Here is the input.
Amino acid sequence: MHLTVILRVTGTLLTLFSVALLLPAAVAWWYDEPVINAFLVSFAITLVAGLAMWLPTRGKRELRAADGFLITVLFYVGLGLFGALPLFLSGSAGLSFSDSAFESLSGLTTTGATLITGLDYLPKALLFYRQLLQWLGGMGIVVLAVAILPMLGIGGMQLYRAESPGPVKDSKLTPRITGTAKALWTIYLMMTLSCAGAYWWAGMSPFDAICHAFSTVAIGGFSTHDASLGYFDSPMIEGIAMVFMILAAINFGLHFAAWSRRNPLLYLRDPEVRLFLLTITAVFVIVASVLLRSGDQSFDSPIRDALFQTVSIATTTGFATTDFSVWPSVAPILLLFAAFAGGCAGSTAGGIKMVRVLLIYLQGAREIRRLIHPNGIFPIKLGRNAVPDRVIDAVWSFFAAYVIIFLTMVCAVMALSDLDFTSAFSAVGACLNNLGPGLGEVAANYSTINEPTKWILVLAMLLGRLEIFTLLVIFSPVFWRR
Here is the structure.
């Protein structure tokens, strides 16, 4: 393990993040808000800390795979803590440092769970900052840095492999990893600009359009209003949000392939995308049927609400137009379970990922065929390509770790708080799947939970964003052996 390389890269990434703090400072200056001082002080502290790690260790040396795992974990934890400074120092939201760290890491991991109420009255700079955190965390600021680190004498493939979501992390879109990172961020930026322009055209103010584009493309779910997208009460805005939530929940590598080959039919040929769209359709039909059969006159637009909330929750975005947690029958639980599956691998969505769900199903079907034909050979295929057994093993290992961690955290939350089972189950599920809103006491926000529970949920957010093994690997004794 190269400690000097780890410190240098971590310092470089913190320095880059410090520059990002100048954007909300500029917003505070534009709107003449006193919170500008909090951002400038946070910028100075983060910059000094980053330079203190980078300057004494600068030089050229290649990263190893183990270094990439540790840097990724250290950076997300470090960024979450340094990112909490503006929220804490401003005092506008009345957050303790633990609360600020929860909010910061919720944004960075694109979870969208919030402790803050009264968003409509917060300074615009703080609102913009929350959305910016989600946007940076959406594609992964680590992947952005991969395009810059080679110029600083630091190779980036190990970082890309550690941060990228999905069961297969070795495929590159372009021959060079720098080109891969640039391609990903070009698509991400173009999608964000398109989303912001569409929101503005649909009636949002420029500020709201930019902020909501950040959280939509990042699949984060933070909003500038307590009522989320329900504040606008606009079918047009909801339609735009659904389109971009679905696009952002599809593999960005597939976006690149479809764009470079000028062939949109590639989306329909992808088995993961087909399963993803089929799942959303099935969940929508069931939820809409439940609302229509309930006969509750309080549902003004059951079809519209069912469609939007299905897309929002199934993609793990977490935007809301209504309180789905009070819907009758199985509807809220079904939506929460849809978030467990999540979006596609290689997207900004959370959850287990559709490709893993598909592979688990195909493996189960193969075992049934093996029972019937013990001597048969049945390869698992995605489309026309056979899936290596190493990938199947990795998927089952991930699923086993996921289930054990989830159940352990639910028990821990119930032991350390007074939350009922539904609230604890949904809180852990919402944070581990980077969804945000839960059921019961955490349906609207997480302001009622105690300090120990907040840190358990912060750990769940990190495990979900880093896909469990990136974080677990650093706790293995093998990791620390030379």
Strands lie at 381-382, 385-386. DSSP finds 22 helices and two strands in the chain. The first strand starts at residue 381 and ends at 382.
